[in-house]
Design a protein that fits this description.
The structure is a homodimer of 428-residue chains. By secondary structure, chain A is of the alpha/beta class. The first copy, chain A, has three domains: 147 residues, 3-Layer(aba) Sandwich (Rossmann fold), CATH 3.40.50.1980; 208 residues, 3-Layer(aba) Sandwich (Rossmann fold), CATH 3.40.50; 36 residues, Single alpha-helices involved in coiled-coils or other helix-helix interfaces. Chain A has 17 helices and 14 strands. The first copy, chain A, has a six-stranded parallel sheet with strand order 1-11-10-9-12-13. A five-stranded parallel sheet of chain A has the order 6-5-4-7-8, sandwiched between helices. In chain A, strands 2-3-14 form a three-stranded antiparallel sheet. The first copy, chain A, is globular and about 85 Å long. Chains A and B meet through α5, β2, β3, α9 and α10 of A and α5, β2, β3, α9 and α10 of B. β14 of chain A pairs parallel with β13 of chain B, so a sheet runs across the interface.
Chain lengths: 428, 428
């Protein structure tokens, strides 16, 4: 971990800039997969799965029997833990429902908003070493609560042609019925274009490696919405006076073990804290199974000593961390000053892993500084708002002349005419 | 206008597909402008303004004096009309504020959402023949209500190096202070990268021609958020029994005059209505100043006869119109069945131009079928939601074991450790 001692604000831009990924080299790979899927549909998917996942899948949709077998192979303990997490996530996302009363903006002019679920959504759950059933909870639960009609889950098969049982258990638990053993670019292509067996969707959510990320970007150009621009995961811990540095080190490492490209930052007040924190990190690092990954991540990571309170806050807002932990009893007092962050963890008993799994908040969050302009996944990720207006005759009499004047000033006479024609017919 | 008589649902996909714009030819133009602005900042902007707008601008920021002069040159009538529209738009967007109570998802686990304005936003107002002051209202008012700190407006100068007084009046009225005489790709590049005189922003909103549209797409790749994918404007009118076809024709033409690439669709129940509607359109067309534009738009436009009620609804949802007018007294009864639309106009006295200017709803809406997955611009366009969680010792005791089990199942032991370490220190 690099240590910065009271860096000047003029140096911050350099410190907060994340490493850039150049995806232009992937363009033709992604384009070729999309074109092949457009032309040959399921046959192309089968061929790509053979090439990239090394397994021949004849029927990519997971059958009811496979789900039953999977459910029985998940331990009782894990099932209970998932059930508890699912209940909390459901509670928090259900509370995000909102309703909108009709507003009379002027006499006889009613305006309102209605929420509608996005009818067809795709959820991508990465494969790899660990089965990310928590991602199924985080994307599936808000989609189901929103009322999406088609929730289509894609996840790559392992070398035996299977999806991990914990993923199938979780998907079944929350009510996802369409599950496909497809991963990588071909999964995003299938969801974007549709095939004989895989439904086309209007929006795709979910994390993934750089291939999946770039495929989602490509899908956007075809008119498919996506959840968030993706980037490596991040944590910033604001270490306040008398913090338990053992806890802080554990939190930094929990983020660092995610991937070699993860970034963790601790902001401390004194040099002594920085020294002690570094020692704790090194100590705890030794016993981690994913030590190598964490070590690489720590090379991109920093301890920043900032003695000035306002500068600490300003740095956080400039960096716009995906995850922000604020230590200490008084953590909540700082919240009004936090402008840019994905999810905030207050006090000494709110580790990031609580939000990753079970507190109820979503773990799909804006990375790479995107928290300056984006929210994490929430209920509204799976909803659209439609506006509605209804003018009475009286409303149009009242508002019509203003519309006529403005339309004329914008030189749009047909706009004006649509009002004038109506006004003429109204008896006054 | 093409007329379709009860087209089969299997033919709908072809009917609803909008013409595709291939922007790949613009890529190098856009990239060159961005690179030049990155390297030479304001000097590059000045050069592009000379080339593309044909005018040499020494000071791109509009001065207070210019604003005062402009305000005095807008007619009293127009000022009053703009004031009325602004009040309605403010009322409707202010009503979109929401608050979120802390939720105890399980004992000792508090989760909530906080809204934060996006600190720096850019608003693009196109130039061209007509001064689009209504766009200033539609983007500026929600940005100001959201509490955005920097609202930066860019609009191209005319050949005299000026922005239309109505645009300056409107911007000043709603509280926008940073106004720049810059248009086209160079405006989007300036807002994305920042220069010595133009602040960099985190999100850009606003309509524009294909250059602006593609520049916004390019900005996204640099991590700048945008409001909506853009496309030509659209209107679908659902013409119910005994509709006033004169009104319907006027509405179709008001959309058609927007641009030659606009698309308007009427769904009628009988062939007789289709014949009468076509006559009305042709009749009204004759007296329009923007007749040529409207005529071209009508070539891409359609009257669709669908005798079956459910098919009419299904077609609307499949097309996902930007604007949807439903005629007749009973229009609101159909609303629960509308799944995909940008903004809906109910009954005979709610012309689209009411929403374009003054009813209070926003006129920046999803086009090109994007209404399947996107909302139009609203207050939340200029806000992010940050999630917050705070666990008490009791909360972690209760939830900790579930987190430990799940982290272990995902093979993330540092995630588990962040909980285990804390649990060990809590006296029970």
């Amino acid at each position: 971990m690099k240590v910065y001692y009271n860096p000047k604000p003029s140096k911050w831009q350099e410190i907060i800039t994340r490493p850039q990924l150049d995806s232009s080299a992937l363009f033709s790979t992604v384009q070729n997969v999309f074109e092949a899927v457009r032309e040959s549909g399921d046959e192309a998917i089968k061929a790509f799965t053979k090439t990239y996942d090394g397994v021949l899948i004849h029927e990519s949709r997971v059958s009811k029997e496979e789900i039953e077998v999977a459910k029985n192979s998940v331990s009782q303990d894990l099932r209970e833990a998932i059930d508890i997490a699912a209940a909390n996530i459901r509670t928090f996302h259900q509370a995000q429902r909102s309703s909108f009363d009709k507003i009379e903006t002027s006499e006889g002019v009613l305006c309102w908003q209605i929420d509608r679920p996005i009818e067809k959504v795709g959820i991508y759950v990465p494969g790899g070493s660990a089965p990310l059933f928590s991602t199924v909870l985080m994307l599936g639960i808000p989609a189901i609560i929103a009322g999406c009609q088609d929730v289509v889950l894609c996840s790559p098969p392992n070398s035996e042609g299977k999806i991990h049982p914990a993923i199938l258990y979780t998907a079944d638990l929350i009510g996802i019925q369409k599950i496909f053993k497809i991963g990588g670019i071909q999964a995003i292509a299938a969801l974007s274009l549709g095939t004989a067996s895989i439904p086309q969707v209007y929006k795709i959510a979910g994390p993934g490696n750089q291939y999946v990320t770039f495929a989602k970007e490509y899908a956007m150009r075809l008119g498919i919405a996506i959840d968030l621009p993706a980037g490596p995961s991040e944590l910033l811990v604001m270490v306040n006076k008398e913090a338990n540095l053992e806890f802080v080190a554990a939190d930094l490492l929990s983020q660092a073990e995610h991937g070699a490209d993860s970034q963790v930052i601790a902001i401390v007040e004194t040099e002594a804290e920085s020294v002690n924190l570094k020692k704790q990190v090194e100590l705890q690092l030794k016993s981690l199974p994913r030590r190598k990954i964490a070590e690489e991540a720590l090379e991109n990571s920093m301890i920043i000593i900032l003695s000035d309170r306002q500068e600490r806050i300003n740095f956080i807002n400039a960096y716009a961390p995906e995850h922000l932990i604020i230590t200490g009893e008084a953590a909540e007092d700082l919240l009004p000053e936090i402008k840019n962050a994905g999810s905030v963890f207050l006090g000494d008993y709110s580790p990031e892993s609580a939000g990753d799994y079970a507190s109820g908040t979503n773990h799909t969050l804006p990375t790479n500084g995107a928290a300056r302009a984006y929210s994490g996944v929430n209920l509204s990720t799976f909803l659209k708002k439609i506006t509605v207006q209804k003018l009475s005759e009286k409303g149009l009499i009242r508002l019509g002349p203003s519309i006529e004047i403005m339309a004329e000033a914008e030189e749009l006479f047909a706009h004006k005419n649509a009002v004038s024609l109506r006004l003429k017919t109204i008896e006054r």
